[in-house]
TrEMBL record:
Residues 24-483 form the Aldehyde dehydrogenase domain. This is NADP-dependent glyceraldehyde-3-phosphate dehydrogenase. The keyword Oxidoreductase applies. PANTHER family: ALDEHYDE DEHYDROGENASE. Belongs to the aldehyde dehydrogenase family. It catalyses: D-glyceraldehyde 3-phosphate + NADP(+) + H2O = (2R)-3-phosphoglycerate + NADPH + 2 H(+). Signal peptide: none annotated. Pfam families: Aldedh. InterPro entries: Ald_DH/histidinol_DH (IPR016161), Ald_DH_C (IPR016163), Ald_DH_CS_CYS (IPR016160), Ald_DH_CS_GLU (IPR029510), Ald_DH_N (IPR016162), Aldehyde_DH_dom (IPR015590), ALDH-related_metabolic_enz (IPR051020). The lineage of its organism: Eukaryota, Viridiplantae, Streptophyta, Embryophyta, Tracheophyta.
């Protein structure tokens, strides 16, 4: 169970502690933040409500610890990361239980997230040793007008303190996707977990603690965003911010100052279906892409743009599959579980009612019980409906019928988002042309949008984000280039004649 066994020390009565200077601590505020179980809508856990003074202390420790960590050999950093990964995977059950209780992720998927996170940490350790173990050597005579009198040596060095802010939907995986690259690169790491998902993150951080990382190098601060959010993101000790979430990221980017930012802020991922597409394949991917984890994924299919000539057939195939989706509690591994909060459910319902008022065709009866919304396919959606443009983050999927490929591309590109998209066709030439025309960070051909495997580049255009993720890209983002130039008094060429005479 969560908070028991090796995790006993992270819990103080009913309230989980925060992590600072290698120890689990209670906040001086004497306050806590409640975490509501999306399924029961009752308080499941409580975490510390940390103060700004405690944030200052964490940042001070992080700056100091990073100086020593930067002098730790790469192989040793990797060794500790491998150890943390093994501990995480060995303790997948209590961490998965936390995911089930605080974000209503199906039990099987929760276990998968933890195991995937361990694999990501290990892969990052190996990749970091490879790419950070190599430098670059430049010679001055490769630029016009220069003799070979300068040797330029470049290497990658850490930025300093990295602030990581993951989202509720993948709190463990999207935390370690920031933590592991930061640590292998020689940075220290301050984690601010989401409220929903905080307990899962605290368990995960304890795995790093047990692995033996130096004190102060990793910290985990919990609390209300209204009290410590801006204080964290605007803190002068922070040298890089990696954030995954929504509109809050735009505000962070405006306030953060001159530091590297890595941000993924959501999407309205379009699925363009051509007349020659394999409709059975399309239907399966729409179900997987649109309804897995109740549609609460940045890379979920969020709008289907299907050619009119095959729309009826596709809609019928998708309807048949929607009817087979199970709805209920995450403990029973249901396909559709409660969305994360009442406010999320209310927002989704607002989009549904707008579509109803404007004449969309409901392929199923709209049904809601608390935070649980039954899967809904909306046909004959028009561009004047909110659901055509806004990200529901729930199990509701709009279908827009199009009369040309250009119409589909134009709708995709008119969105303020540009995370991912997909196109289904048997003509690879058309697929490539459409991919090039779509203004998204990634285009999947004949498959639903997806983040991963975790070493693949992952990025968004427009309001979907800044920078690129994926193991290698994250390591590179969390480092900077350091150059040392050796100046020679006279030109020197390898195997060149006249060497002795110049001595």
């Amino acid at each position: 169970m969560a908070g028991t066994g090796i995790f006993t020390e992270i819990l103080d009565g009913e309230v989980y502690k925060y992590y600072s200077d290698g120890e689990w601590r209670t906040s001086s505020s004497g306050k806590s933040v409640a975490i509501i179980n999306p399924t029961t809508r009752k308080t499941q856990y409580k975490v510390q409500a940390c103060t700004q003074e405690e944030v200052n202390k964490v940042m001070e420790l992080a700056k100091s610890a990073q100086k020593s960590w930067a002098k730790t050999p790469l192989w040793k950093r990797a060794e500790l990361l491998h150890k943390a990964a093994a501990i995480l995977k060995d303790n997948k059950a209590p961490i998965a239980e936390s995911l089930v209780k605080e974000i209503a992720k199906p039990a099987k998927d929760s276990v998968t997230e933890v195991v995937r996170s361990g694999d990501l940490i290990s892969y990052c350790a190996e990749e970091g040793v490879r790419i950070l173990g190599e430098g670059k050597f430049l010679l001055s005579d490769s630029f016009p007008g220069n003799e070979r009198t300068k040797y330029c040596l470049t290497s990658k060095i850490p930025l300093g303190v990295v602030l990581a802010i993951p989202p509720f939907n993948y709190p463990v995986n999207l935390a370690v996707s920031k933590i592991a690259p930061a640590l292998i690169a020689g940075n220290s790491l301050v984690l601010k977990p989401p409220t929903q998902g905080a307990v899962s993150c605290l368990h995960m951080v304890h795995c790093f603690h047990l692995a033996g990382f130096p004190k102060g190098l990793i910290s985990c601060i919990t609390g209300k965003g209204s009290e410590i959010g801006d204080f964290l993101t605007m803190h002068p000790a922070v040298n890089c911010i990696s954030f995954t979430g929504g509109d809050t990221g735009v505000s962070i980017s405006k306030k953060a100052g001159m530091i590297p930012l890595q941000m993924e802020l959501g999407g309205k991922d379009a699925c363009i279906v051509l007349e020659d597409a394999d409709l059975d394949l399309v239907a399966s991917n729409i179900i997987k892409g649109g309804f897995s984890y109740s549609g609460q994924r940045c890379t979920a299919v969020k709008v289907v743009l299907v050619m009119e000539s095959v729309a009826d057939e596709l809609v019928e195939k998708v309807k048949a599959k929607v009817a087979k989706l199970t709805v209920g509690p995450p403990e029973e591994n249901c396909d559709i579980t409660a969305v994360v909060s009442e406010s999320s459910a209310n927002f989704i319902e607002g989009l549904v009612m707008d579509a109803k008022d404007k004449g969309a065709t409901f392929c199923q009866e709209y049904k809601r019980d608390g935070n649980l919304i039954w899967p809904l396919l909306l046909d004959n959606v028009r561009p004047d409906m909110r659901i055509a443009w806004e990200e529901p983050f729930g199990p509701v999927l709009p279908v827009l019928r199009i009369n040309s490929v250009e119409e589909g591309i134009n709708h995709c590109n008119a969105s303020n988002f540009g995370l991912q998209g997909c196109v289904f066709t048997k003509d690879i030439n058309k697929a490539m042309l459409i991919s090039d025309a779509m203004e998204t960070g990634t285009v999947q051909i004949n498959s639903a949008p997806a983040r991963g495997p975790d070493h693949f580049p992952f990025q968004g255009l427009k309001d979907s984000g800044i920078g690129s993720q994926g193991v290698t890209n994250s390591i590179n983002l969390m480092t900077k280039v350091k150059t040392t130039v050796i100046n020679l008094p006279t030109p020197s060429y390898a195997m060149g004649a006249g060497f002795i005479s110049r001595l």
